[in-house]
Amino acid sequence: MGWNSWDAYGLTITESQFRDNVEILAKTLKPFGWDYAVIDEGWFLQNPHELKSGNVIYALDANGRYVPVPERFPSATVNGRNEGFRAIGDYVHAKGLKFGIHIVRGIPREAVRRDSPVAHSRFRAKEVADITDPCPGIPRIGAFAIPLQARPGMTRS
């Protein structure tokens, strides 16, 4: 069992809010079997309150992968570089809990729009995304599937 940020914060959770909840989880619920602390969807949105307008700004790395927004998750930035949730994960684990994040399947639509390079390959996002198979749910944040069958010339690793 565990605690998930969605029920209290929706898309807007910040690092300090998450850490405060982890403290309570570790002290009061862990003895009863609650051992997961999860940051739900939206941690990669710079302006989550703009979702309905469609003007959200995504935090993506150079390869089109979601990264935590540094203004909301300051520990993600180490020496000027976004290191993801390493520090938060270490913090949660030090409390004897397990850490999780919510992420939609596939490749971010924004990565396809930007035609980001795909890490460790010679391909770009537009070449690997199946834009006929959008992830349902929150369409403005959603992703596109990555085909199970490799396209001609693609190699999987």
TrEMBL record:
Record's keyword terms, sorted: Glycosidase, Hydrolase
Claim: Hydrolase is one of the keywords in the record: yes
Protein name: Alpha-galactosidase
PANTHER family: ALPHA-GALACTOSIDASE, ALPHA-GALACTOSIDASE/ALPHA-N-ACETYLGALACTOSAMINIDASE
UniProt similarity note: Belongs to the glycosyl hydrolase 27 family.
Keyword Manganese: no
Xref: InterPro entries: Aldolase_TIM, GH, Glyco_hydro_27
Domain of life: Bacteria
